[in-house]
Amino acid sequence: MANKLTIGVLSSGGDAPGMNAAIRAVVRTALSNNIDVLGINNGYEGLINGDFHSMNERSVGGILQRGGTILLTSRSKRFMEPSGQRDAIRKMNEAGINALVVIGGEGSMNGAYALSQKDIKVIGIPGSIDNDIWGTNIAIGTDTAMNTIMEAVDKLRDTASSHQRAFLIETMGRNSGYLAVMAGIVCGAEVVLIPEVPTTTDEIAAAVEDAYKRGKTHAIIINAEGSGIRTTDLATRIDDLDVGFKTRMTILGHIQRGGSPTAYDRLLASRMGVKAVEALLEGQHGVMTGLKSKGIDFIPLLDVISNKRKVNMEYYHMTKVLAR
Amino acid sequence: MANKLTIGVLSSGGDAPGMNAAIRAVVRTALSNNIDVLGINNGYEGLINGDFHSMNERSVGGILQRGGTILLTSRSKRFMEPSGQRDAIRKMNEAGINALVVIGGEGSMNGAYALSQKDIKVIGIPGSIDNDIWGTNIAIGTDTAMNTIMEAVDKLRDTASSHQRAFLIETMGRNSGYLAVMAGIVCGAEVVLIPEVPTTTDEIAAAVEDAYKRGKTHAIIINAEGSGIRTTDLATRIDDLDVGFKTRMTILGHIQRGGSPTAYDRLLASRMGVKAVEALLEGQHGVMTGLKSKGIDFIPLLDVISNKRKVNMEYYHMTKVLAR
Amino acid sequence: MANKLTIGVLSSGGDAPGMNAAIRAVVRTALSNNIDVLGINNGYEGLINGDFHSMNERSVGGILQRGGTILLTSRSKRFMEPSGQRDAIRKMNEAGINALVVIGGEGSMNGAYALSQKDIKVIGIPGSIDNDIWGTNIAIGTDTAMNTIMEAVDKLRDTASSHQRAFLIETMGRNSGYLAVMAGIVCGAEVVLIPEVPTTTDEIAAAVEDAYKRGKTHAIIINAEGSGIRTTDLATRIDDLDVGFKTRMTILGHIQRGGSPTAYDRLLASRMGVKAVEALLEGQHGVMTGLKSKGIDFIPLLDVISNKRKVNMEYYHMTKVLAR
Amino acid sequence: MANKLTIGVLSSGGDAPGMNAAIRAVVRTALSNNIDVLGINNGYEGLINGDFHSMNERSVGGILQRGGTILLTSRSKRFMEPSGQRDAIRKMNEAGINALVVIGGEGSMNGAYALSQKDIKVIGIPGSIDNDIWGTNIAIGTDTAMNTIMEAVDKLRDTASSHQRAFLIETMGRNSGYLAVMAGIVCGAEVVLIPEVPTTTDEIAAAVEDAYKRGKTHAIIINAEGSGIRTTDLATRIDDLDVGFKTRMTILGHIQRGGSPTAYDRLLASRMGVKAVEALLEGQHGVMTGLKSKGIDFIPLLDVISNKRKVNMEYYHMTKVLAR
């Protein structure tokens, strides 16, 4: 006879708005199926340390609207070593945890895959504000981050118009231009700088000057942090070149990671949390929940970590048409 | 040789946040392809009256973030008659408009289909805050409306917990429970009332009482306006039955139609606006843009108006599991 | 030698955003002066029941931005009786509480005064979203409520203009028109209905018709719940009279009580919390903190409960000039 | 017989949310008193160029909720010279403008005083997001800026707690610590750095380490741009010293100047706009409207520009008590 399931749930890596909604969905779906749930604090670090606590329906009350993650998170160096993974498995066995739900980004899925190779039943749930995880159309937290950027840029627009100014906004995205490109479309940015498309400060200055000549009352430049051009340098350069607008700079930083999750992220996280538990019940594991055309699908963790997500260049070109 | 295109664009029916983003995308995509665009005021009513004006890149500057529609909208009774449609076509011919983009809801797509039957090249773009249009996963404005409801309910939660109260929130949705169900998931509602699932006040009172007994500090009840149960009546009834919580009522009304569009709605509207013009350029018409698994697709207007969108009951059941 | 102080703190009556900021300021100011603090749950009800718990710096961590009150609140009938007050004093003595901070509205100040008459050292802090407490320019929570109303009406404006509509918004204010008048100014309302100024539906309809004739694209009507005119009745009547605009209704309800407190409310609450403890240290009691010209002042509780705050009619007239 | 008044209105210097509300109040109050109003574009620069346009009630429709200023603004070097002022007066005479309302900051009040010395009837209205104008308790725009900072820091809090992090937030305030101190109170910052209180990176690091030891899950450090310590340098230094928290940086920039004005700013701006026109009607000029204990008062422009506003150190000390 199959063992009764006891699910451990953890969040790992950079936190993303909506992770709490996913935790809540995992816990309540499990409990409604008479499955016990243990919360694991501080990600894989807590897994190694056996930092577990039993969760009931009330443990996840009032967290749906909170940013961050009540289970805390960390990046664990110890877990990258076989010895760390061995210790983690031992602690899981001691506590009777025989299935694990891991909510996190690309690095977290690597850890999940490593455990699945050691016969642990793992399901991953993708959480990432810059949507850089292969295998899902969108990750938990991206929609909230996009709205946060957008609201910041909206605030700049009126003041930009009053003064004939250019604004430089640095967004997250060390390896991926996704957030910057999407923000470019929804904010009506004149210029978008991303890691995938190398450019020069002179080209950017020319684009800004062109916007000025076309009669724009302001220019919005969105710079992904991994674009290769430093925001501070660019601000200085554009001012030196005197393109018509004076330049001002905003670095959003971790504001993009925070805030109450949007409806979209709460819904996505809830759906993925429900499906993760249902999948475990049906005997599936070694996979990540992914939003696909037909709904929530299950993607082998090996595929997730073996592929690199690419930014859709169609959107990049759209920013140019729409900013005319 | 084919005639050069001149596109007319109008918004019609109930307005939805993101319509301006769609108008902007239509205008700028057209202009970047050297196509002229005429804006039509007040929907089909303006089409009959020849209330047209030429649009350039600056006509749509600074509107991306605005709710409502700069082209205004109306519900036109005259256009439901053949004589109204005939007058509209005459005005279009006089102004040289040989293609039309119609942004609106189900009723607007009916009008678009009627024109397409009279050899007018029409493309529809779906805008509807309660997502009741067949042929697209989601319509422009729905995401913003969902977030508006959610933010209102989030405000109720803290005060609800402080006082041990039940809150009744009436949302839009005369024929469709979509908004109410989705809001139910993202707000963590204990009870959701929709047109598709008949229920009684006694059943609702029992569900609220059950939440009280389970130790909930408050209860959230979302009532779609077309559920068959009047919000005011329900409030009185629950208070009479004394279920543990005192009841308070909120009727959101047209707040759900307003506000600056979310990132999701701006992106969806921009994509649909771009694709609508590209489709006309490629000779396609008589269709509506629809968000499908593979991206923006084109759905025959006849199919759009011949089918009824149904609420996904899987989501309805999810509200019950997640609210435990 | 004077007894060492042990302060009890409670919130009572209707909750208001910023109450948590006041609790946090009381606790941390007390602790930094080596005074013990006991939190009292559920207002005067908890005082009677001896529902007390010791508070330290971490007890009030992370609550500054939360609406509602972590100490919960209630309206206590028992405390209105001498026997209830007697039991409360007994419980205070048993727990060693020899000074009390009461955060709440007019009714709560009545209770505070009653205790002060029985030789309990009490300081009141005014919290009320409709600013109906005499003795302070403004109470904690009013600024947040005003912004909540304003943001709701802002959402209505774009959609109103798109459709040529009149909007009826019902705000709180059973006895006081303060919120409605102030909201009228900051929302640019065409008509404001308050308890202090009796009016008829015909006068209102005439004002709306006048706005239509002057070329306004919409009309905003704000109705305090105690104005004497029911919102639902008014909506029907204006539509019957056909004044040019179609009418839509919003009842905000307890949304006005919720939400994260504004900067103004957090600042006001923090200042009042600090000053309340400092006053007790200096031997003052039987007073309420009040925002006055020179800063935070102390108003005898007897004066607070013996006077009625009146709406400033200058503001009422300002709504008429500004809405032209 | 006295000449009929014709009022010119301009905004100048850095824009601030609420300036449009002030313009609207000036225009509508003037018109309701049968006074003509000319809008002047681009501040003193437009005054010199005669860039004037007649304004009616509809000119200021729908601007109450908009950030920025519809009259645009600039910093005019020409106007600092007597020749520029002479040209401006000539243009005013040609257009029949015999009274001027100037909405702006300290520099703008200098210009207003210069004109008043040349027999022009001027009234100033203070607009400044960092509240650095002497003669008014608070200037238009400060409340909105404070809320913008607060909402940004609120977003950081959850993510900070999830990760045990310290956050550095750079706010405006080149010469004044007002915004930073007030933000410190309302955001619950552990450390506030302002121009008025010199400090060292080592002291800051010690304060952060102390917060870590006291059990805080995160630390918030607010740095006014004129504090003398560069935000980028401080971030590096704290990370080098290893105080327990990892550090992340946010530079808000002009986001603080933007956004829809809060209720407080709309109300203050409306009151000042109304009073400015009433004062001109009563023969007063050469003054600035100031919020004082008794309401809106009139402060001689000479006093305004001769005094320096100082930050209230009581608030600075309050940040230390409240952050325990």
Report on the structure:
The structure is a homotetramer of 324-residue chains. Chain A is elongated and about 70 Å long. In chain A, 62% of the residues are buried. Chain A has two domains: 182 residues, Rossmann fold (3-Layer(aba) Sandwich); 115 residues, Phosphofructokinase domain (Rossmann fold). By secondary structure, the first copy, chain A, is α/β, with parallel strands linked by helices. Chain A is built from eleven helices and eleven strands. In chain A, the strands form two sheets. A seven-stranded mixed β-sheet of chain A has the order 3-2-1-4-5-10-11, with helices on both faces. In chain A, helix 1 links the parallel strand 1 and strand 2. Chains A and B meet through helix 1, helix 5, helix 6, helix 9 and helix 11 of A and helix 1, helix 5, helix 6, helix 9 and helix 11 of B.
Q: What is the strand and helix layout of this fold?
A:
The structure is a homotetramer of 324-residue chains.
Chain A lengths: L5 E6 L7 H14 L3 E5 L2 H7 L2 E3 L27 H14 L3 E6 L1 H12 L4 E5 L15 H22 L1 E7 L6 H10 L3 E3 L7 H13 L5 E6 L6 H11 L4 E6 L11 H19 L5 E6 L2 E6 H6 L6 H10 L2
Parallel strand pairs in A: 1-2, 1-4, 4-5, 5-10, 6-8, 6-9, 7-8
Antiparallel strand pairs in A: 2-3, 10-11
Comma- or semicolon-separated keywords:
324 residues; alpha/beta; Rossmann fold; seven-stranded mixed sheet; four-stranded parallel sheet; 11 helices; 11 strands; elongated
Structure in a nutshell:
The first copy, chain A, has 324 residues and is an alpha/beta fold.
